[in-house]
């Protein structure tokens, strides 16, 4: 059975050859680098042809998009789904085409010593990129950046402004992450010819399009391609081990300097690998754990060649350690208790499109709540989010898009290979963020299925081989006795919805069921446990006393019952609680959802429900018990 846009099958087969395009370093300006943001208004067309393949057959990338059919304006970054009044665009499956003309500074093109790179923050799910009609790269995966060196294409074609075309396909198959299936409805008494639907096993809308910024940036021909830092400390001396990967020359020298916030150089070294010692170190501490949280040093990497080329790149470095014992999660050797939220990249109109006002508002709400952590459920978030978390000391569990792996055919070799590739891209992008303290390789896979044992053993050990400094987990909701993956993880993360999906309307059973859950998991695995999801839907403004499901009172009651148990178990081996969910979010239409999932403690417009105030009291109380707070943050805060 073909996939909408049959070309897609062939494109995925090519992937192994082109996946070197995933990028590592967040693009930054420096004395040797320039950045030009080409987000904004793009031309757009969805390929509505029956097999979604007309664009490839008619080579829409070869001429301006407006010459091959009608186009509409489409903002980038944004999901395209909620931008128009056209239901066909909202629910579209298959290829859509974006195009924009961009002036590339003439001196970039003239100067042969300049490398010009095109970077897409993310495009969901599969993307192909052409510059002036020449294909330059393609990328699988909807939540991580990709880039291509476009210097030679630009220098060979004389056309400036240059025409950028990006085709994006949101089709999910058994081998994509997340997986899905396309179902063709062939009963002609019920469906029109060619009718198909996209089925998924996850609970959020499959928003699509170019979701993050699109940039052009430059480097010299000899440049820093990647930096890896690993930090530790002993007494008051911090240690930053670094490894700089340089491309473009075998003969280059590397100089590294570390400076404090006020610009004082505290350590320097030469060579592409080395260690920097910092006396009187300021450690990176989480928000609410220390009076001076989130301390970041600046590490300047300078790469020079004999013929006079120099590349500068500055990385923010937080010096901290992470360790897990059988009952504790330690940051800088002190017990850390996660009191935080699960999120989604989701908002009105933009869908999953990155938006600065939304990011800053969400950060402010998390701080107001007294949250010290969040999980990037159920996919990697924009890197801007992690940079913000680094700067504010919010701890992150970084999750890959392994959500909805429920079909046994998604545990095969093709799926595993792709899952490993995604982990590689994710670790490459996020390894230097001090806020990231744990990798989550999946959410609620069918871990009871027999192949899950091998699958997770491979996945977890591969992730550890990429990064030995952080624990690895996946999020489970299956029975402790039948979970095939739990033996391999460092921390058990359990989701449960007592008195919601089980025993609906009966919060009085939560205490006994939650105690049993914790004792079973800890009894079997002797590993610390995070309640990685719990909650209840509440339609904002709906009330009842005594509480009934879907009211704000019921949501509060469920939370209170969970909290009573957490307060007992956090004295033993429970190391965290993450509410499901920070805010209401959109889902596919189905009989379980009323215009989306309403388990948010904030509405989708970020207004608090009653549960937000309950959680705020709780988080600040826990912070006051466990942290060392500066006076201005003591609850109730100003
Ligand atoms: C879960 C899933 C999450 C859902 C949530 C719910 O276990 O991990 O994606 O949205 O439950 O509300 O059902």
UniProtKB/TrEMBL annotation:
SUPFAM superfamilies per record: (Trans)glycosidases, beta-Galactosidase/glucuronidase domain, Galactose-binding domain-like
Subcellular location: Lysosome
GO CC annotation: extracellular space; lysosome
Gene Ontology BP, a term: carbohydrate metabolic process
Position of the signal peptide: 1-24
Activity regulation note: Inhibited by L-aspartic acid.
Glycoside hydrolase family 2 catalytic domain boundaries: 322-623
E.C. number(s) listed in UniProt: 3.2.1.31
Domain Glycosyl hydrolases family 2 sugar binding: 36-220
Record keywords, A-Z: Glycoprotein, Glycosidase, Hydrolase, Lysosome, Signal
InterPro entries: Beta-gal/glucu_dom_sf, Galactose-bd-like_sf, GH, Glyco_hydro_2, Glyco_hydro_2_AS, Glyco_hydro_2_cat, Glyco_hydro_2_CS, Glyco_hydro_2_N
Main location: other
Top-rank EC class of the record's enzyme: hydrolase
Alphabetized Pfam families for the sequence: Glyco_hydro_2, Glyco_hydro_2_C, Glyco_hydro_2_N
Catalytic reaction equation(s): a beta-D-glucuronoside + H2O = D-glucuronate + an alcohol
UniProt superkingdom: Eukaryota
A molecular function (GO) term: beta-glucuronidase activity
Function recorded in the entry: Plays an important role in the degradation of dermatan and keratan sulfates.
Family: Belongs to the glycosyl hydrolase 2 family.
Binding partners and assembly: Homotetramer.
Protein name per its UniProtKB record: Beta-glucuronidase
Organism, as annotated: Triplophysa tibetana
